[in-house]
Amino acid sequence: MAAGIELSAALDTQGRLLRRLGRTDDARRCYAEALGIDERLSAADPSEDRLRRNVGLSHGRLAELALHGGDLGDARASGEAALGIHRALAEAFAETAVLQVDLANALGVLAAVHRAQGDPATARQLTEQALELWRRLAPEDASLADELAGAVGALADLVRAEGSDPARARELTLEAAGIIEGLAEADPGSLPRKRQLLTSYWRLADMDVEAGDLACAGNHVAAGLSLAEHLAGVDEDSVDAWRDLAEALRRTAGHAAATGHPEEVRGNLERALEIAERLVHRFPRAADRHRELAAAAERLGDWLREAGDHAAARVLFRQGVAASRRRAALDPHDAGAALAVQPKYRSVP
Q1: Measuring CA to CA, which residue among 136, 68, 49 is closest to residue 101?
Q2: Which residues of 282-318 are buried (b: 16+ CB within 10 A; e: fewer)?
Q3: Which end of the chain is more exposed for a tag (fewer CB within 10 A), N or C?
Q4: pTM for the full predicted model
Q5: 297-346: pLDDT as tens digits
């Protein structure tokens, strides 16, 4: 049994590394193999709670990766399995903090899945349960402030999207921003803290846009772009850093369009497309990278079509279709990939 536990732990470590390198398909295979080992070990000794916890953790990792890749059916199945295990353990050992942390994490992942599936009511219910746990746990363990900020921010996003209580949404957004800014100031060299700060900038910018304050939104977007460029420069091997920069460029283009600066729109969308192309070249077997390339190509194509450059738009739409086809070939079970393979360029005059 000890050898199996060690092998599962090694696979989990390898999966984390592969995920950081952007090789999400390979990471998923590692987590799936670890889950198989964990389930066999737990079945052989059902009374061992540590083995049950390992099964729940592996399900959770698979849920996160499936969500990240757009496989919402798999994400929900894994997320529900993880939540069932962690809820049972947390109820059985109510005074064990680590098991309460597991439960809060599982609630957050499943909430994100429901939100992606278009079920904001369930997402909000799960997020509120997670936030209640984080509010109870964080005062006892300062290291959990990150998770508290994430849960507050996630609830802010859901309340804002719901649209029924803008004051509550603003209150939560500012609370999350305050926590994140405090963490970043306390540890200015931390890259994870800076990535959290980047998320906070986007949330604040969205809030400003909804309030009609484009000038303030522009300040937050500009701060986000500057920070994203810094992160990509200091962590060049991080796929997430480059994806964050692409998102920053997309948001900068959106703000430029809203404020009447078309030349900036095209330049930023072109840079975002270049990043997507670079990541596909670096990870040609990663279906997610082809999905992102298709989205970036179509986004620029849509803008060029509206601007009247139909020839350039047609080229980009074809590039997007080609990327979607490669994505579908790499992941034949991805229903989203099959739907994405549509010859959009035929609608261009």
Answers
A1: 136
A2: ebeebbbbbbbbbbbbbbbbbbbbeeebeebbbbbbe
A3: C
A4: 0.71
A5: 999 999 999 999 999 999 999 999 999 999 888 877 665 555 555 666 55
